[in-house]
Design a protein that fits this description.
By secondary structure, the protein is mostly helical. The chain has 2 domains: 90 residues, Tetratricopeptide repeat domain (Serine Threonine Protein Phosphatase 5, Tetratricopeptide repeat, Alpha Horseshoe), CATH 1.25.40.10; 85 residues. 64% of the residues lie in helices and 6% in strands. It is built from 12 helices and 4 strands. The strands form 2 sheets. It has a two-stranded antiparallel sheet with strand order 1-2. It has a two-stranded antiparallel ribbon with strand order 3-4. The termini are far apart.
Length: 222
């Protein structure tokens, strides 16, 4: 609890006399007070209001980015890439993604890698970025990295580790991919994959909104 104009409000709230009640402090206000995570929260909310909101979002992103907050640099880069609220400038967007990635923002590394993956000259660099983003906690990067490893016979066995990380991280299709790989590994063996493991992976996939996992789970329950 903290005092506000003589009244006590929970942390993160302020007292509004005209309403005679405590209300949450708006994220854009918390942003200008130095709470950089709230700059990104406010920016994302403002983007939903079109160009006018996105223009204000760009200022919040820019402030936080200049203060060294990597996710804000990604947010500003996205606005430049789309020309939303700011002048369209893909080169500027790319530079901001690179800045965000170097600053430790995993999704920014994934965005950079996705732009490179189709080009033979940068495929090795793209794989390194996917791996980096995955180990920083981006489940989507783990899934894509696993898919890329699965295409390479000499690295295919390593892909299961990354599909597992993606599955745990909420990528439903990765759970199903992992199941297919584990089932294939048991072909020709005297025993099949543990039914409990099958159910575990299908349940994870279904909880992560993978429709096919839900369908298979329903079929397995019959």
């Amino acid at each position: 609890m903290w005092g506000s104009n003589g009244s006590c409000c929970e942390l993160g709230n302020e007292y509004i006399a005209s309403k005679n009640q405590c209300v949450p402090v708006r994220p854009e206000r918390r942003c200008v007070e130095g709470h950089l995570d709230d700059c990104v929260v406010a920016g994302r909310q403002l983007e939903q209001r079109g160009d006018i909101g996105a223009g204000y979002a760009s200022e919040l992103y820019r402030y936080a980015c200049e203060e060294g907050h990597a996710p804000a640099c990604r947010g500003l880069g996205s606005l430049h890439e789309r020309g939303l609220g700011v002048e369209r400038d893909e080169a500027r967007g790319q530079a901001l993604y690179e800045q965000a990635c170097e600053g430790g923002d995993a999704p920014a590394c994934t965005l950079l890698a996705e732009k490179m993956i189709g080009e033979a000259s940068t495929s090795t660099q793209a794989l390194a970025l996917f791996a980096q983003a995955c180990h920083r906690g981006d489940a989507h990067a783990c899934d894509v990295y696993g898919e890329q490893l699965a295409l390479r016979p000499e690295q295919s066995k390593q892909s299961g580790f990354y599909f597992e990380r993606a599955c745990v991280g909420g990528i439903g299709s990765a759970c199903r991919t992992l199941l297919v790989r584990e089932q294939a590994a048991h072909v020709g063996e005297s025993h099949e994959i543990d039914p409990a493991r099958v159910r575990e992976l299908l349940e994870r996939g279904c909880r992560a909104d993978d429709a096919e996992s839900c369908t298979q789970l329903a079929g397995a329950a019959r």
